[in-house]
Amino acid sequence: MWTYDKKLQYPVKIARPNAAMAKVIITQFGGPDGELAASQRYLSQRYSAPYDEAKAILTDIGTSVPK
Questions:
Q1: Has residue 5 been placed in a domain?
Q2: pTM
Q3: Which range of residues forms the domain containing residue 39?
Q4: Is 28 within 8 Å of 35 (Cβ atoms)?
Q5: Alpha carbon distance 24, 28 (integer Å)
Q6: DSSP string, 5-59
Q7: Is 34 among the domain residues?
Q8: What is the pLDDT of residues 17-46, one digit of tens each?
């Protein structure tokens, strides 16, 4: 089970824009092999899972945050 708390884990301080770093971040986040696509696959598979335990595991994986 998880709860949603809308706050940042670390404070964000941007000194100056960096287009090259932004490009690297967006490819990891939004590409077909990125984190967002992977989490959406897990969350969509939970709706067709036959067992409640499998649904719970897929939900936990799809909503987990790497530490």
A1: no
A2: 0.51
A3: 22-63
A4: yes
A5: 6
A6: --S-SS----SS--HHHHHHHHHHHHSTTSHHHHHHHHHHHGGG-SSHHHHHHHH
A7: yes
A8: 999 988 888 777 777 777 788 888 888 988
Binding residues for Ca(2+): 60
Q: Which amino acid is at 47?
A: Y
Structure tokens at 52: 């409640």
Residue 34 phi, psi (nearest 5): -85, 175
| Number of structural domains in the chain | 1
Whole-angstrom distance, CA of residue 63 vs CA of residue 43: 8
- The annotated binding site for Mn(2+) is made up of 35
Annotated binding site: 35, 60
For residue 51 the two structure tokens come to: 């067992």
Q: How many residues does the chain have?
A: 67
47, HSE (Cβ side, Cα atoms, 13 Å): 4
